[in-house]
Design brief:
This protein has 210 residues and is an alpha/beta fold. It is built from seven helices and seven strands, in the order ααβαβαββαβααββ.
Amino acid sequence: MDAADWDRRYEGAELLWTAEPNRFLVAEVADLPPGRALDLACGEGRNAVWLAERGWQVVGVDFSPVGLNKAKALARARGVAASQIDWVLADLTQGDGGWEPEPPGFDLVAWMYFHPSPEVRRAILGRAVAALAPGGTILIVAHHLDNLEHGWGGPPYPEILLVPEVVAAELSDLGATIEKAETVLRPPREDKQEGERAAIDALIRARRTL
């Protein structure tokens, strides 16, 4: 899906997703002191806003202007100061990884349900790790390949779904130290249909050591 496709998905007045942050982001960031955070493919901004509310200085990047407008509205509604989040309109999938953060030195890079092609993913991973300060954390949570047959939701394209061990190996090649590479489950939605299964996600957490 390109930016125009996402604009159409986001065009309604209501949030496409919940305003609450991702459960795995909350759990994994709880032990980190607030610093500078980069939220890649931030969409409607729920994770970026949550981080800002907890004292992080955030850069949120997305290629959908409609999504970013809703993110800004969410931040205002939650009382987050405009100076706390820098919203950047950019396509991360272009060229060899697209937009590059300046300056680098982020304490956290959040990659939440962002599914580029494997080639583009590797290029963006390189930029993401380079954007980290020494000791900084990258957290990746996305739909697992197993979700296609055994879970619910997510893209129906196996080539863009993640396997934790594969992404962990790619991060290791970039000099990151792997802290977690796990398969995790999300319970069915509150409005689930009878027999609906849990979603299967990949969670990878790594630290820049170089």
